[in-house]
Amino acid sequence: MRAVFGLVLLIGMGLAGFAVYLANNYFAEQEAKLRQVAQRAASAVQTVDIYAPKRDMTYGELITPDDIHIIKYAADFLPEGVFRTEEELFPLGTSTPRVVRRPMETNEPILAVKVTEAGAPRGITALLKPGMAAFPLSDNMTEAFAGELRVSDRIDLYWVGSVGRGPEISRLVKERLEIIAMDEPDNRGRGGGGGVVLEVTQQDFADLQVLRSSGRLTLTPVATSDISTVREAPVDTNLTTILGIKEPERVVEEVREPEPEECFIIRQKGTERERVVIPCSE
């Protein structure tokens, strides 16, 4: 009987130890899961609600409530000028839309710099910043880059011509001008690239009118990385500089001043003749 009791006691102690072992493993596993949840919560990206277009939109289009929806965006990387409420996007009511100034892709945050003020008119006037002017480029200037230029790209303008009877020169005259409007390609990607309009200052507009009438204007796109680069020296050249031709030295002839006129009379003294200087009459 004692042997049976001892055996039962041993079995009970074994089961109790095994139960304690399982309980310890369970609690350790739960504690590890809780730590993982806490770590994930600490590293989770905080997001905010902002407005974005449901579809691709190009310049000149009206933004209506049907064109937008709310997306989640990382709070730490929120760009400046986003719209977080419908009242911010449509301050005059949903019946007074804004106009797209720069193309936007689907789910791209709507920024204040890419849209006009609420109620602004459509067309070029809606795309211009206050105090700025629109300068159109001829299609002959842009045909070399047809299909490559985009709205918001920056370009440099060069002038080729001559001043007076001087040699023909090529000079960089305007830098980093922004394209605010141009013809868009059709649904098949054909056409587009013409009708380029630049945003310039009033002084730039006046300068370009004179330069265009007195020579030829050509353009070159500006790399995105060069937009903020400052050029230390002017960019210009001419044919003699390109070919390395040295102009002959000019010989400066010495100009001699005319000797003053001398007036005199001859006086006879006996057998001698005397030369007497007198003032010259005018």
Automatic annotation (TrEMBL):
**Top-level division of the source organism's lineage:** Bacteria
List, alphabetically, the InterPro entries matched.
Pilus_assmbl_Flp-typ_CpaB, RcpC_dom, SAF
The SAF domain sits at 48-116
The family database entries (NCBIfam families) matched by this protein are listed as: pilus_cpaB
**What is the protein's name according to its record?**
Pilus assembly protein CpaB
Where does this protein come from, organism-wise?
Answer: Yoonia sediminilitoris
